[in-house]
Design goal:
CATH architecture of one domain in chain B: 3-Layer(aba) Sandwich
Strand content of chain B: 5-15%
Largest interface: A-C, 88 and 83 residues
Number of helices of chain B: 17
Helix content of chain B: 40-55%
Oligomer: heterotrimer
Radius of gyration of chain B: 38 Å
Helix content of chain A: 55-70%
Structural class of chain B: alpha/beta
Number of domains of chain A: 2
Number of helices of chain A: 12
Number of strands of chain A: 0
Strand order of the largest sheet of chain B: 2-1-3-7-9
Order of helices and strands of chain B: HHHHEHHEHEEEEHEHEHEHHHHHHH
Shape of chain B: elongated
């Protein structure tokens, strides 16, 4: 067990009103207006989802990609609590915060898209639920995970509000929730990929494979680390704080390892199934496939060398590249590579885009408010030492 | 109407002659001419030519033979009303032999026929009504001791034109219904050559009239199809002009006589209407001079395909017809239709703006991070700090 | 050296993982379901269809659906595809001069679009709330709007694109053919079959319909045969007509384990909008993966146990190391 000492988290402090939060506020207001219209008049009034493309960006981006980008908490918890790399502990709370918001919004975001949302509880009710459905498993696991994360994150609130006794009691059982917090994402992130399977030949063979749960799980882990890199750099720049390079540098190496594993799995899978054909067609789908994989390969060039890893700019770009790759993988499987038959088109409407933007604005604003008022990020004045 | 002045050029004398001869007003007469011209689908102005042809003094002789028939075709002609047709027939043409209409009978009638044939040799029009039995040398139909076969061949030999009126003469009709014990055959089969046929049971009288007037006007018979049917009347399926076609296209059918659909005038296809495989102009003209809707389908009974060989008197009346030459409406859903909303300018612009903003912010952040890193490295190098354990940015 | 070892470990792990992932579903994949023996369905013979759309109109009336317009004047019900309000449609295949009926080149042909009532429905497998159910006896795939949450997974899953959602309503439902099961109590059967003038749509037990389809395929094109109309075991409304030039395949016999709605056509099925499907259903693959990973919750519980054990040890150490920091706020 490695020795470590780290600065205890503390609120960043400062004014809550700034350009960022104001912009977010406006975007959220726009989103709420659009949602009001959607709920009163129906989906067709605001969204371009149609009979051929029943899932648009509200499902694929807000829910699936949103939850994937929220895998930071899962990836870091895996590292810290399962692989016992305690030196990454300071990354846990900020990652968890990002996850908390991402998943809560993904789960809440489902309501915007459900056509008969008032029946949502049926998914959990035994007489209605269908355990054969992949979506059932995803819904149950995501909901459970959201609850677990709020419990995992509660020490932050308990600290702020000085409930130390309760916090001690909670700490005794925290290990169980942490275990759940590692198991549940493994289950539902892989199942988010399995959701493609029942669609059969409608999904392009480049993304339709029985190995899809493994592919989605690995990318979820990798995206988690990528998001941590991304978020750490953005938060440091926004709050004018130092970046924990001593943590991010080795973390990025771990990320490269998992990324390498993922790419091997992907290539072997495509080769075994003989599915490379469509990648070399002259089509938008093929182009999207290559952009996705170039994004996944880019980190090896960006942070392959130790020297490159010392530059936070490269870490940031690598994290961004991973996120782009992960986003594209999901976008390709469910939308771009999805073909229900000739003649169907889908492009998100302006209203759909503004709602998605609004959802992410809630995350950003929430992140800003909580990091400024609650103990999440490490205290800035503490020096970090290695031994 | 055509150019009225052309009519006037004929000279009032001639016109007065026609009025006087036919006992009708000029207006009625011109209306008759234009009706015939329209029936034949002739171009504008043709009614003038028709008018001119009719009041020319020379009236062609017509020999009308009856064989295995019910005289329905003649009866149909008698129902023409603009004006009362027997006048016109007797005056527009010279009907020199017609067993039902002529006053003479027996040897007198036959003598009149022979005289007319001799007098107008090569110039008379032969009209045949009824089928010709060929079995047993044609003994099953004899007039004046002569078989129908002999009579037909004799009269057709010196005729300028042969017109077979009615389905029986055109292709055998009802007498030819299986097992056809008398061997009833069409005029064309007996003569061994194609003739003009006006099928129908009975045919619309104006189809016949218009054909004859065309002959008078232009000196030749109208365009006919492979079976000898004038194209102006028999080039379209009943189904194509049927007033209930919209019901067919929308899938509204009468299932039984007297049911709700039947009362509402729905399509009769399911009751066996042969409109989809029968060529005729019944829906356009109607019968009894009462206009459209006065035809079997209009009265609620499916078309039996009486004009069409192989359909009428051959297929059961209520058997479902085979669709010939179906041209579905233009607005028929294709296997693949373009659907769904593509990118609008606004949404594409919004997405592009978002992507641009994100890329810009990322670029800026990267640059700043790189700059601070470079500065920190430079500082560390300058300070010559050997302890690399402490890294600050 | 460290990284190379890690890399090699990764490659081995990856290879094993993929092999496992690919092999596992095949080994544990559940069998594709077959049609229930008393399953009801339709036989659609495209060569008999004259495109009259009586079935479209009858379906609309039987299900109380409003008309849909695709022309400017909004005079007639003219849907261009099935939708939340159109459960049955006849589409037209066109090629070249469109002279001859049922000719693949320079011809035209009709094809019915409605629920195939699959033996192993993707929609039933996908639906998380059992709104889509397959009746164990009649095999009819039914929809229950009271259970539905409107997630539209069934819309995305169906290979035929049949379930469709009513997007224009804030309380929209899914709409699809349910074989007129609501009319059975009144002695009726599928409205489309009831009204079809030529017997192109025929109703009956799928096993009987399959036999009838094979009988037609065995006939010589151009010869005459008797075609039943309405329902197979109903009053005789048959008629004699010419035999079409069929593609020698009954569509729906094996696709995804079979469907209860069968189709015959003279034009290649793919060209008239019927997709090429393997006998192994995607529902079987999907459920195979889920069952092997989560069947009986065995793997998850074991994993949770292991993870809890590891996490407990780690957290305990963490707490011990930070015990002096408890003075922190």
């Amino acid at each position: 067990m490695k020795q470590h000492a780290h600065a205890w988290p503390a609120p960043v402090g400062g004014s809550l009103l700034n350009a960022a939060t104001l912009t977010c506020g406006i975007l959220i207001a726009i989103m709420l207006t659009i949602l009001l219209v959607r709920f009163v008049f129906g989906l067709a009034t605001v969204a371009n989802v149609n009979d051929g493309y029943s899932w648009g960006i509200w499902v694929v981006v807000d829910v699936m990609i949103g939850s994937a980008l929220a895998c930071g908490g899962f990836s870091v918890a895996l590292l810290v609590y399962i692989f016992n790399r305690g030196e990454y502990h300071p990354l846990v709370r900020p990652a968890l915060l990002g996850s908390l918001f991402g998943y809560t919004l993904a789960g809440g975001g489902i309501f915007i898209d459900l056509g008969r949302w008032w029946n949502f509880w049926h998914i959990f009710w035994p007489s209605y639920s269908n355990p054969n459905s992949v979506m059932f498993e995803v819904a149950v696991c995501v909901t459970a995970y959201i609850l677990v994360m709020w419990i995992e994150f509660s020490p932050v609130f308990l600290e702020k509000f000085g409930k130390r006794d309760f916090k001690k009691k909670l700490n005794k059982w925290l290990f169980f929730f942490i275990a759940l917090g590692v198991l549940l994402p493994m289950m539902h992130q892989s199942s988010l990929g399995t959701m493609l399977v029942v669609m059969g030949g409608q999904v392009n063979p480049l993304w339709q494979t029985p190995a899809v749960p493994l592919i989605y799980l690995l990318t979820a882990i990798v995206i988690g680390y990528g998001v941590v890199l991304f978020e750490a750099c953005v938060a440091a720049a926004a709050y004018r704080r130092s970046i924990e390079m001593h943590l991010l540098n080795p973390l990025s190496k771990i990320m490269l390892g998992v990324l390498g594993l993922y790419l091997v799995v992907r290539v072997v899978d495509l080769s075994v199934r003989g599915a490379w054909g469509d990648a070399f067609a002259f089509s938008g789908v093929a182009m999207s496939f290559w952009i996705e994989n170039l994004a996944f390969i880019a980190p090896f060039f960006l942070i392959g060398s130790a020297q490159a890893r010392r530059n936070p700019a490269n870490l940031f770009l690598a994290g961004l590249a991973i996120m782009v790759g992960g986003i594209l993988l999901r976008l390709n499987g469910f939308l771009i590579g999805y073909n229900t038959g000739p003649g169907w088109n889908y492009f998100p409407s302006l209203a759909e885009i503004m709602v998605t933007v609004g959802m992410f604005a809630i995350e950003v604003m929430g992140y800003i408010i909580i990091t400024k008022r609650f103990p999440v990020l490490p205290r800035e004045d503490a020096q970090v030492t290695h031994s | 109407m055509g150019n009225l002045s052309e009519i006037f050029e004929l000279g009032t004398h001639a016109l007065q002659g026609v009025e006087h001869r036919l006992g009708m007003t000029r207006r009625d007469y011109l209306q008759f001419c234009s009706t015939l011209a329209v029936t034949m689908g002739l171009a504008k102005g043709a009614d003038a030519a028709v008018a001119k042809a009719i009041e020319s003094a020379q009236r062609p002789s017509v020999i009308w033979l009856h064989f295995q028939e019910c005289t329905g075709c003649s009866e149909s002609l008698l129902r023409a009303e603009h004006p009362t047709l027997e006048k016109l027939i007797l005056d527009v043409i010279s009907l020199d032999y017609h067993e039902t209409l002529m006053a003479a009978a027996g040897h007198q009638a036959e003598a009149a026929r022979k005289a007319a044939m001799a007098a107008h040799k090569g110039k008379y029009v032969l009209v045949v009504e009824g089928a010709i039995p060929v079995k047993d040398n044609g003994i099953y139909c004899k007039i004046g001791g002569h078989t129908a076969i002999d009579l037909l061949k004799e009269c057709a030999a010196d005729a300028a034109a042969v017109i077979a009126i009615g389905s029986c003469a055109s292709w055998g009709g009802m007498p030819a219904t299986g097992p056809n014990p008398s061997g009833a055959s069409s005029v064309a089969d007996v003569l061994g050559k194609t003739v003009v046929t006006i099928p129908g049971c009975p045919p619309n009288p104006y189809n016949f009239l218009a054909t004859v007037v065309h002959f008078l006007t232009f000196g030749k018979l109208p365009d006919v199809d492979a079976l000898g049917r004038p194209k102006f009347a028999y080039s379209r399926l009943v189904h194509e002009n049927c007033e209930r076609r919209a019901h067919f296209d929308a899938g509204r059918f009468a299932m039984e006589f007297g049911d709700e659909g039947h009362r509402k005038g729905y399509c009769l296809y399911k009751l066996g209407c042969k409109g989809p495989e029968t060529y005729a102009n019944c829906p356009t003209l109607g019968f009894g001079d009462a206009g459209e809707n006065n035809w079997p389908v209009g009265c609620g009974h499916p078309c039996i395909g009486c004009t069409e060989k192989g359909v009428g008197f051959t297929k059961p009346i209520h058997q479902v017809a085979v669709m010939k030459n179906v041209a579905p409406p233009l607005q028929y859903a294709r296997i693949v239709e373009e659907n769904g909303q593509g990118a609008t300018f606004a949404s594409a612009a919004a997405l592009a703006a978002l992507a641009g903003a994100a890329a810009g912010a990322a670029a800026m952040l990267t640059r700043n991070l790189g700059k601070s890193h470079a500065a920190a490295e430079a500082q560390a190098a300058k300070a010559g700090d050997a302890d690399k354990a402490t890294e600050r940015v | 050296m460290d990284t190379r070892r890690h890399f090699l470990k990764g490659v081995l792990a990856g290879g094993a993982a993929v092999a496992g992932a690919v092999a596992a579903p095949e080994v544990c994949a559940r069998e594709t379901h077959t049609r229930p023996p008393e399953g009801l369905g339709l036989l659609y013979d495209a060569t008999l269809c004259v495109g009259c759309k009586a079935c479209v109109a009858a379906c609309k009336e039987a299900n109380n659906n409003p008309p849909e317009f695709s022309t400017e004047d909004h005079l007639w019900d003219t849907p261009l595809d099935t939708s939340g309000y159109t459960f049955n449609l006849i589409k037209m295949y066109r090629n070249g001069t469109m002279e001859t009926k049922d000719a693949e080149v320079n011809g035209y042909a009709f094809m019915k679009t409605s629920c195939m009532h699959c033996a192993d429905p993707s929609c039933v497998s996908a639906c998380p709330v059992s709104a889509m159910l397959k009746d164990p006896v009649t095999g009819i795939v039914s929809y229950n709007p009271d259970a539905c949450v409107g997630c539209r997974y069934c819309v995305a899953a169906c290979p035929f694109g049949i379930p469709k959602y009513q997007y224009d309503s804030p309380t929209g439902k899914i709409g699809k053919c349910e074989l007129c099961r609501h009319r059975y109590k009144d002695g009726h059967y599928s409205a489309c079959a009831e009204v079809c003038p030529t017997g192109a749509t025929l109703y009956g037990k799928t096993s009987d319909l399959l036999a009838e389809a094979k009988r037609r395929l065995a006939l010589k094109p151009g010869s005459t045969t008797t075609y039943p109309r309405g329902r197979l075991d109903g009053p005789d409304q048959s008629w004699e007509g010419p035999v079409g030039n069929y593609i020698q395949h009954v569509y729906g016999e094996t696709e995804y384990g079979g469907t209860q709605v069968l189709k015959l056509s003279a034009v290649t099925f793919e060209k008239v909008g019927m997709p090429n499907l393997p006998p192994h259903s995607s529902a079987a693959t999907s459920e195979g993966i889920q069952h092997s990973l989560y069947g009986g919750l065995v793997l998850p519980v074991v994993a949770l146990g292991a993870l809890s054990f590891i996490a407990k040890r780690t957290v305990k150490h963490d707490d011990e190391a930070n015990s002096d920091e408890e003075k922190q706020p």
